[in-house]
Amino acid sequence: MTVCPQILSPPHRVPPLSEILSPVSRRLNRVNRLLRAWPESTSPLIRRMAAGAILRQGKLIRPGILLLITGHFGYRGNHDLPLAAAVEGLHLASLIHDDIIDRSAYRRGEKTAWQRFGSDFSLLLGDFFFIRSVARSLALEEKEIPAMLAEAARLMIEGEIEELAESHNIKISRARYLKIIEKKTASLFQTTCRLAARLGGAGSEETKALEEYGLNLGLTFQVIDDLLDLTGRPSQTGKPAFSDLREGRVTLPLIYALRAAGPAEQRQMKKELERIKTEKTQPVNQKLINFIRSTEALQKTFRQAEVLAARARSAVLRLRPSLHRRSLLQLTDFVLWREQ
């Protein structure tokens, strides 16, 4: 990760995600097959749109977490796979809606649903995944599970709305930013852990530890995501550089940079952000990027992510040792040091 000259590589080997998720890799493949079967009973157009979204899905971190936790507790039922698919379905829905809001043409190097089908069709496709996720959970014996998934969806949508409302707001505070990403991103991580703990029969203390793990891992994930908008390589991140800046997202690196700026620099940064708002097709002014990088903003952002990752590690260490717990620990390093 090219965060700054002082941070060139992790202090120890971080296993690739395939290795981290290896204890549940076969079951993750089955989750993938379940997701691909979701559109089978629908119209040909929905099947085509949904198939493309599923094929372009990401790292399966959230369903992987769910299966690692249920595996840790020795769960032997048959509800973990459909529940893992439901969690990933919620995530897919949020990505599709994100791309509409941000008018993102590419994600992970592939055309988005918005680029391929337009706003109307892709909006309905996101709705399809939201509704199907909750509907699939209704078949499970645990009747509280659909309510928990619906609550996660509510928080995610609320976070997206609040983030959109704060666009171009250079006065947004660090606390406000963290609260928004807690809803937008971390809520699904936390709910995934809560669902898995319930399915696995975890005790109250174990459940609390896992909820803390999910919350802090999700926060770490989003902070690093926002950092990669400024430091990542498009060939690795799969999206254009400075996407957040172009959409007026005032993320943590920019918040720290604004804190370091004097009155004249703040006025200049505000002017540049306003220009980006009206001229989205024009390049981001390199002076703005250089100023952000000249402050301690990138380093401070990474240090914040390190604090959050450390909290996630500390929480999961309260579980008894197991192969699955080891993967959950490794996942904190993977999320912290990822480059895409």
Put the structure in a nutshell.
This protein is mostly helical.
Largest sheet: 2 strands, antiparallel
Give the helix level as a range of percent: over 70%
Taken in chain order, the helices and strands follow as HHHHHEEHHHHHHHHHHH
- Quote the distance from N terminus to C terminus: 9 Å
Number of strands: 2
For this structure, what is the CATH homologous superfamily?
Farnesyl Diphosphate Synthase
Give the count of structural domains: 1
Q: What oligomerization state is this entry in?
A: single chain
Mean pLDDT: 89
CATH-assigned fold name: Farnesyl Diphosphate Synthase
Shape: globular
Number of helices: 16
User: Which stretches are low in confidence, meaning pLDDT under 50 for 5 or more residues running?
Assistant: 1-6
Summing up helix and strand content along with how strands pair, one would put the structural category as: mainly alpha
Q: In angstroms, what is the radius of gyration?
A: 20 Å
The percentage of residues in β strands lies in under 5%
* Text of the CATH class: Mainly Alpha
CATH architecture: Orthogonal Bundle
Order of strands across the widest beta sheet? 1-2
Describe it:
The protein is mainly alpha-helical and 340 residues long. It has one domain (17-335): Farnesyl Diphosphate Synthase, CATH 1.10.600.10. It has 16 helices and 2 strands. Strands 1-2 form a two-stranded antiparallel ribbon. β1 and β2 form a beta hairpin. Residues 1-6 have low confidence and may be disordered.
